[in-house]
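Deviations from the work plan: none for this task. Representative record:
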Amino acid sequence: MYTSHYDYIVIGAGLVGLSVAYQLKLKQPDCKILILEKEDNVAKHQSGHNSGVIHSGIYYKPGSLKAQNCISGYQTLIDFAQEHNIAYDICGKLIVAVSPKETAALNNIYQRGVANGLTGIKYLNAEQIKEREPHCAGVEAIHVPQTGIIDYPAVATTLLKIYHQLGGESRFSEPVLKVTNVKDTVLVTTSSGQYLTNKLITCAGLFSDRVASYTEKGNDLRIIPFRGEYYELKKEKQYLVKHLIYPVPDPSFPFLGVHFTRMVNGGVEAGPNAVLAFKREGYKFFDFSGKDCWDTFSWPGFWKIVAKYGKTGMGEIYRSLSKSAFTKALQALVPEIQEDDLVPGGAGIRAQACDRKGILIDDFNILKRNNIVHVRNAPSPAATSSLAIGKYISSQI
Ligand SMILES: Cc1cc2nc3c(=O)[nH]c(=O)nc-3n(C[C@H](O)[C@H](O)[C@H](O)COP(=O)(O)OP(=O)(O)OC[C@H]3O[C@@H](n4cnc5c(N)ncnc54)[C@H](O)[C@@H]3O)c2cc1C
């Protein structure tokens, strides 16, 4: 027997779920709304284990949901941070070609930036790179002045606080176990009870496929978890990096490559790599879950990824196990960096959706079915875009 009836229930208190709930409450102040989260606090997974970068929108295919929501989410996020005194810094970044072979790909990124309406991005030659980042080696770079850094856990905590002030309800440490359609409503069963809702929005990150499969039989996307591990630069070597330094990414791979990020609360991170994880929320190399591995290895698309990216994947595993290999990747951008300059940092796990054919889904994937919306793929830059995604979903539902 259900205990309460809501207008909306949102599953997941990461940045996407919190933004959806916040935007719904702003739009419909009288609505009765509940967030259900399995952890004891907000941002315990991707939203609290990321690089902390405010992306500019330069990389994304013009017209894609990523491009649209990153560009509109960028300004909304900055306005939100200003209004609520959240630490952020628009410090700009360099995307650096380290050999002439990379300049064509660099030019493609530049063209995308122009097509996405970014102003002020400009090419730097080797000398100009040194003026901005004296220790960075590159033959050519793009300077992206819009890129910044922010405290995403503070954004999440603030969103929850305002949502509560607006009258929204939340229940933590309450995993959702089942979702059933009951006439025109939806019955949500958790570890502690049952709730009826007129509309449901699922924003379950690393478990988005499993939660979607409660109502989507024959779900055609599977989450393949990729761990991203970081090192931190020792304090005395942080002078080697002034802002953010990124490589030219492999265009066939949905990750940006190991980079240097100055963090908003101090320090410089190097990473993340992208290693297949044997547990969806396992932050260490040997963390293992039989169920999560079964979900990965039984998915036909996974084996197609192995065939396509096997060599890249092995390189990532090698870099994960060998600090000297990781250092070597970083030395391409900043040759002075030595193994001893790096100390182990944190890790995050990316929820990357993959279809049966082995296509790693690049764009955000938001599936609407009657009174349910499933966010099935919200990888980077979904933290930057979160307030825009929330607005988009609240207007769709
Ligand atoms: C290593 C790394 C670096 C990144 N860097 C950046 C960056 O610099 N800039 C950027 O814009 N983006 C970045 N991203 C991407 C960004 O962090 C994510 O896209 C974004 O946080 C996704 O938010 P989310 O709310 O969808 O997922 P999450 O933050 O993972 O939240 C999902 C929530 O759902 C909950 N949940 C799952 N199943 C259930 C259930 N059954 N019942 C109840 N609750 C459930 C989980 O506990 C979790 O709290 C990065 C990601 C990673 C992993």
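The longest helix spans residues 300-321.
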